[in-house]
Design a protein that fits this description.
Blueprint (H helix, E strand, L loop, with lengths): L18 H14 L9 E5 L10 E4 H7 L1 H8 L3 H5 L1 E3 L5 H13 L6 H13 L3 H13 L6 H10 L3 H12 L2 H4 L3 H9 L1 H27 L3 H6 L1
Parallel strand pairs: 1-3
Antiparallel strand pairs: 1-2
Length: 228
C-alpha cells in the first residue's frame, strides 16, 4: 500500500497513512487540541522591524498560553506584556513573527531555509517543541553540499541534534570537496573547535572503515587470500 501523505509504501490497515505520517498527524492534532482557559483576552505581538503599514500581529492570549509555556508564564504572572496587551519580540522580523503566530493557530507554515532557521530559534526560545521538530525535519530534508557547513554550524548553536547528526554525516562523506571550499577555511578561522569535531568524526569513520575491511579480509580462507 502507498501512504496518501508521503507516497511511501507500507504494510497496514485502511488508515491510508504509513506509521511515521500517522504519528505526525497525531502529534499535530494533539498540539492543536491542547485545552486553554477561556478567561484570557486578546493581545498583540510586535516585531523588531514592524512596519506602520503592517502593524502588530493580533492574537489571543488563550491560544498563546496553550501553545507556549514561556508565553503562559509571561501572561499569567502579570508581567508588563500582560498588563500592556502587547508582547514585543526582539530580534525577529515581521515575516517570522507572523509565521510563528499563524503556526500556533494552525500547525501549518510554508517554509524556506531562512524561515525554518528563524522559526526554529523562536520555537526554542518560547518552548514550542512541535514547531522546533517541524523546522528540524525541514532543514534535514533540505541538506546539500552547499549548505551543509552553515547548517551544521547553526544546528550546533541551537543544540538541534537531528540536524547536527544529518549534516555531519553529509560533511564527512564529502570531506575532499568541502575542505576545498572558502566557507570551510572561514569556519576554521571562526570556530576551530567545530572543525576539530568534524575531523574527529571523519577520522573515527576512517578507522572503523579500515577495521571493517581488515576483518573482512581476515575472514577469507587462506588459500583464497593467496589467489587474490
Amino acid at each position: 500500500m502507498r501512504c496518501v501523505s508521503c507516497e511511501g509504501r507500507y504494510d497496514g490497515d485502511d488508515a491510508g497513512t504509513c506509521k511515521q505520517c500517522h504519528e505526525d498527524h497525531k502529534a499535530k492534532v494533539a498540539f492543536l487540541m491542547t485545552t486553554h482557559p477561556s478567561s484570557f483576552s486578546d493581545i498583540s505581538l510586535s516585531a523588531s522591524d514592524d512596519e506602520e503599514a503592517a502593524g502588530p500581529v493580533p492574537a489571543h492570549k488563550a491560544v498563546l498560553v496553550s501553545r507556549s509555556s514561556v508565553l503562559r508564564a509571561m501572561l499569567e504572572n502579570e508581567m508588563e506584556e500582560s498588563l500592556s496587551g502587547i508582547i514585543k519580540i526582539r530580534d525577529v522580523s515581521y515575516r517570522t513573527l507572523r509565521a510563528f503566530v499563524n503556526y500556533l493557530y494552525t500547525a501549518e507554515v510554508c517554509l524556506d531555509e531562512q524561515l525554518a532557521c528563524d522559526l526554529l530559534v523562536m520555537a526554542e526560545i518560547y518552548q514550542v517543541q512541535h514547531l522546533k521538530n517541524y523546522c528540524q525535519k525541514f532543514l534535514v530534508s533540505n541538506l546539500n553540499l552547499d549548505n551543509s557547513l552553515s547548517t551544521y554550524t547553526f544546528a550546533h548553536q541551537h543544540n538541534a541534534k537531528p540536524i547536527i547528526d544529518a549534516a555531519l554525516t553529509l560533511i564527512i562523506d564529502n570531506m575532499d570537496k568541502l575542505t576545498a571550499q572558502e566557507e570551510y577555511a572561514e569556519l576554521k578561522e571562526k570556530d576551530p573547535q567545530l572543525v576539530f569535531e568534524i575531523y574527529e568524526a571523519y577520522l573515527s569513520k576512517q578507522v572503523n572503515k579500515a577495521a571493517a575491511q581488515k576483518g573482512s579480509s581476515a575472514s577469507y580462507p587462506s588459500e583464497y587470500a593467496e589467489e587474490c
